[in-house]
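TA notes. Do not distribute before section.
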Amino acid sequence: MKTRLQSYSPSSPSIGAQHAYVNRGAMDALITIYKTQGIHGLFRGMDAAMIRTGIGSAVQLSSYDACKRLIAQTRWFQNDQSRGASLHFSASLLTGLIVCIVMNPPDVISTRMV
């Protein structure tokens, strides 16, 4: 339901699947989805969301350590008095950028499927 709420655009009705009932509120949207599509309608798009989450977790977990090692090799934060906080922050920032780039296509696909 959240994805349906986010993807609804009254100004661009030709983009993706539009669900006009979502502008009446979350509870009404849940009731409408359940009445028209049953319990399966409430879980529509879940398969794409699980794939998206798996991809995001795999990229995040693997890229953080690689980014941290790469930044540590540059010795930019060699004299960091806060015991590597700058190194970890920089690695996290770079990892976040990588995760955003990798997760953009599954996000778009997930929004268009619903």
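Switch to the second chain here.
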Amino acid sequence: MKKLVLISGLIATALFTGCSYKYNSTPAVMSYDGSKNDYSKADQWKSYTICKDLTEDGGDISVITAAKKAGISKIKHVDTSYQYKKFLFFTFAPKKCVTVYGE
């Protein structure tokens, strides 16, 4: 009985510690009235996409950083997306991306 408890404890420890992955993210709370934007002129807006590899620590993918790098002073629209490389059933190099559009 002691061996069974010991073995099941070791298996549980291996499963829970071997698969631990921590990613802290605080969602931004932002609201805007998109009806005031003229999206027919969206192709004239500047845009910039910034991505972060989710398997690495650090990296800044904030809307402000993307706007500064593109020289955007009036943000019109923001998109967020995830990019993955897949091979068969496996996912490699997950990335979170933020795209900022504006003038």
